Give the backbone structure.
Amino acid sequence: MFSAEIIAIGSELLTPTKTDTNSLWLTGKLNEIGIEVKLKTVVGDDETRLEETIKDALRRSDIVIATGGLGPTEDDITRKVSARAVNRELVFREDVLREVAKRFEQIKREMPEINRRQAFVIEGAEVLPNPNGSAAGMSVETDGKFFIILPGPPRENKPMFENFILPKLRERAGEIFVKRRILRVAGMGESAVDELIAPIYLQYENPQTTILFNRSEIEINLTAQDKSEKQADELLEEVATKIAAALGSGVFAINGETMEEVVGNLLLQTGKTLSLAESCTGGLIAERLTEISGSSGYFIEGVVAYANQAKIRTLNVPAELIEKYGAVSKEVAEAMATGMRERSGTDYAVSITGIAGPNGGTAEKPVGLVFIGLSDGTETKSIKINLPGDRYLIRWRASQAALDFLRRTILKKQN
Amino acid sequence: MFSAEIIAIGSELLTPTKTDTNSLWLTGKLNEIGIEVKLKTVVGDDETRLEETIKDALRRSDIVIATGGLGPTEDDITRKVSARAVNRELVFREDVLREVAKRFEQIKREMPEINRRQAFVIEGAEVLPNPNGSAAGMSVETDGKFFIILPGPPRENKPMFENFILPKLRERAGEIFVKRRILRVAGMGESAVDELIAPIYLQYENPQTTILFNRSEIEINLTAQDKSEKQADELLEEVATKIAAALGSGVFAINGETMEEVVGNLLLQTGKTLSLAESCTGGLIAERLTEISGSSGYFIEGVVAYANQAKIRTLNVPAELIEKYGAVSKEVAEAMATGMRERSGTDYAVSITGIAGPNGGTAEKPVGLVFIGLSDGTETKSIKINLPGDRYLIRWRASQAALDFLRRTILKKQN
């Protein structure tokens, strides 16, 4: 399997606001033909560091792709430094100059003198035409390695890479197909998941398994490669099935779906409707559900009952209940769910009340304490959880726990 | 001036979908104290490449910051490889283990055996406590260079960097103060803003001005540097004041505040309360407002009236109005606002109804058509807007426009 490195060149990519996105697209294209990106570098117009970066990359990896720094100005150092890194001269090419000049004719502007610089190319390089800009790309073979230099703007480097580089790499890489699959787990920690599934994934070198922790869930990434797409898919299916079985109902997605998609699909499949009564999450659960196009098929109504008066007036929570147990309590959570279901007439109503912090916590009811209620017309039940994190995370995790509670309830009814 | 390099560690950062964002925030913080980032690397769980990267960085630059790969699993190689790169041993620290164990107690989970790995630290390193996770950070001084190792999640590495690293670096970096200020503009395009303010900012080399377009607003970034913090602040104040005057009420933030903060502050200052009736934004406006701690001081209640029945039943919108004009109409938007204000008794009620897409648009009422209503007890008014973008962007921009409508209304009443 070929290894690749990507070098993004440009001082603007070393500021706090700009990020290199070319490498994401290039990585996708390389992965598809079974080439793995092993390292990415961002370097500015610093000649020493750039030269060292190119040399190191060509020593370590089979394919090196550099993007950017091919403009006509003084700080565009890619041509000069790349030539030095591969120990070759820059040569002036009359035919490349004609292409640059043609480009200026097209946009009806006179070619400034400094654009002559763009007609210098590395000795022996294949020149890659650029129909969308004045900077030509280059492809150099050196000591069995491929060194590819592309302009920075995506609309210039994408067609160049697809038309001139990809076919060549595909030919060399041979018939390898790489496929990815993501499983998602709720309500378990990273290490607990790892303990359960390590005995499975350690048996396989292919697919490769990576475990990540997100805001409120564990993500299991599987990457398989094989000579056909079908075989790669079969490998993924085999391991995904085993992992899902080991984790049981903790797995909520076996194909990269989000929690709101999974819950939405379950509601659609079972033909059920939902309403929400939110306090501490302030509309976040409704917002997540309605981010999905088509959610009007099952989501009917939500109430953000932030003030106690709103809980009493719109959700019919008895004032005495709030007085006796407090707004953050099992009793109020359940009354909110019942009241919401009665108002909306939906099959399910989910409620949530808690302390998102940073203020408002007490010894008895600390920040992170959350009650989730669920009413389905037959019964109203609730769970109590304690969530770690700051306000943002507590709200996010509370929304995830509420959706997961609903998911598990629907699944139980199906069985 | 000190030079820095940032190394992001994690195979997931070499996939087509994930990008390293930690380095942007770190760059901002380093720039503020006059430290320039000269190179960034992303490397996976490849021991050879990672070791080489760390060694190269420490040879070239004064400060090297590595993020990620400090988890408890087999593929978290940062501890091991970093120790090797600086030629030191990993040592087991009982006190660090106690912190890891404490973390699990807090979240009421049993500590799995593999988390013991997180108690190994590089010999002679300063250990950086992590109140938000189980991975401790490390700071190592080697041959006059600073090598800092931080966990990957922003919520863990940000406080660690700000509390333990930044003060130390600031002391070494000496007396250069770089300060930033962000102004935010709603309801104007990038070129319109530039035309109005270019005559101002072109007069100044310091502060530097950058204009960026975000999801729904123009951001004007000012960066000033001077020998004292006070002088840098004065420079910023001078230019910010001139720019704000040129843009008038279009500027909603002169100090980086978000729209929800600005609106929340206006409500607090004027002692007014708010309720919301959302359709197409599905709870997003309520979610944004309640993300702010203390929002219960002005936000009372929200209704996500997604189905027409919810608009009729909970907001008292006459069914005939929906039938005659459609749910996405000026008439229904205004009835929603009036109904919501009557239900909640708040000073203001804001409503929103629109077509977020991708489906549901017609020639007459295309995707992106949004009506925003506002009732203040004396009158109910509305605006109609057409928003470009996908479902996500339309919803976001609609929420921003609704908050901006409220902001302008409150400001007008003040004058």
